[in-house]
Amino acid sequence: MKTRLLFAALILAASANFYGQTTYNWNTAADGNLDDPESWSPSGFNPTNAQMIFEVAGSYQVGLENDMTSRYVILRGSSGLVTFDLGTQTLTLSSIFLVSQNAQLNSGTIEGTMQVGNSVSDKSFTVSGANSIFRSATGGYVGRSDSTAAASGNSLTVTSGATFDSGSTFIIGDSRKAVSTNNNTVTVSGAGTTFTAGAFLIANLSEQLSGQTANNNRLVVTDGATATLSTLTVTRRAPGVTSSAANGNQVIVGGGTGPTSLTIGGAVAVGAIGTNNIIRVESNGTVTATGGATTLNSGAGTSLILEGGKYLAAGQKFTAYGNSVIAISQGGQLTTGELDLRSSLTTTGLASVELTKLTLSNTSKINIAISSAEDYGRIEVANGVDELVFMGTLNVTFADGYEAVAGSSFQILSFGQAAGEFTAVDLPDLAAGLAWNTESLYSNGTITVIPEPNTAMLTLAAVGIFAGFRYLKRAAQ
């Protein structure tokens, strides 16, 4: 028996020596430096391959006098805020930087795999200031359920000129167990702030388990910040998973002050599962998709919403399936190569849609709202070699109390070659005595308001009778 115990001890010792990892605990709620041995227990602190654990409750500041290389940082205090103020120094980790307690980086550089909220909820990490850099070369996540505990309400904020650079896959809402990963957020804000990642996933149901949820997770880029992603996927589910939910997840770009941009180098896919999953681009916001197709899948409420913002995918294909929606208003702009529209496109106000090709089907629905004689949506298809074949439904409405008058003309479509007709054309009601003329709709995309034919004839007849009466009256005199 003693021999077995000794053998087991030798194996454990050899394993510890092989991995070369020692665990050290931060031993005070007061301010201190990472490279000060007095800040750690047990004694004899050696940062090489160390697992550095912060579980002291309270708020305190952590500094660094010299660049340091180690293995792990794990933050898991029950309360308080840990502030890393590293000056111009760099903390390099060969493994993870795990945030299970609220923390922030106010200066300096941290290199390691960012993980915020692993099977815990309502934890935050903030990278703030022009002198703050976090490099997560092997990717990272915000909100991951690796156990039976939920991982919801966690957040990563990059702001005030800070830099976050992840060279690999980054996930918001990574559900690996039959629990919730809801309401997790990455926010990138402020002029000079940059966020870079490889493949970016929102609401990832990565295991074949029923009962998983990944709802209302968000990427927000605002107030003049810049973000760059290799690809963007909003909702993804592993094969074989059927009883799971991924609803209400969003990418929001723009709003606030200053021009804000999100650039995506590859494919964009929204709503492979779930409902109401959205890319929303607000005023001051621009999304540029430079190297891959954009796909809105068929889940109800899957949407691209341009509220004064721009989605620029010149030369790329854009496909909108089933129940998805493209909605453009407040001067928003969609520019793409081929638009394969199998769902609905709605333009309101001075909305602009610029395409090199428009492909319609029997399920296509184009909705155009007219707010004034000049303020209405327009769809422009480049005059190329591809013929536009009209199919589906054209629905035109008045907005903001506008009422057209005789002679009002609206060129809602612009195209080169065209054939066919819409299956249905629904136009708004006009005042008494007016009618729509759609004779030019299929030649140059124009609809015009004219006097109603019967009314016009009666008017001419009345004018003729009145003129004849006056002539007879003069003749009798």
Q: TL;DR of this structure?
A:
The chain is 10% helix and 48% strand. It is mainly β and 477 residues long.
Per-chain topology:
Layout: H1 2-19, E1 22-26, E2 32-33, E3 40-41, E4 50-54, E5 60-63, E6 68-70, E7 72-75, E8 82-99, E9 103-118, E10 124-128, E11 132-135, E12 140-145, E13 155-159, E14 163-165, E15 170-175, E16 185-189, E17 194-205, E18 212-213, E19 218-222, E20 226-237, E21 244-245, E22 250-253, E23 260-264, E24 268-270, E25 278-282, E26 285-289, E27 294-296, E28 303-307, E29 310-313, E30 318-320, E31 325-329, E32 333-341, E33 344-348, E34 352-360, E35 365-370, E36 378-381, E37 388-390, E38 393-398, E39 409-411, E40 413-414, E41 418-420, E42 424-426, E43 434-437, H2 441-444, E44 446-451, H3 453-476
Parallel strand pairs: 1-4, 2-5, 4-7, 5-8, 6-8, 7-8, 8-9, 9-10, 9-11, 9-12, 10-13, 11-14, 12-15, 13-16, 14-17, 15-17, 16-19, 17-20, 18-21, 19-22, 20-23, 20-24, 22-25, 23-26, 24-27, 25-28, 26-29, 27-30, 28-31, 29-32, 30-32, 31-33, 32-34, 33-35, 34-36, 35-38, 36-40, 37-41, 38-42
Antiparallel strand pairs: 1-3, 39-44, 43-44
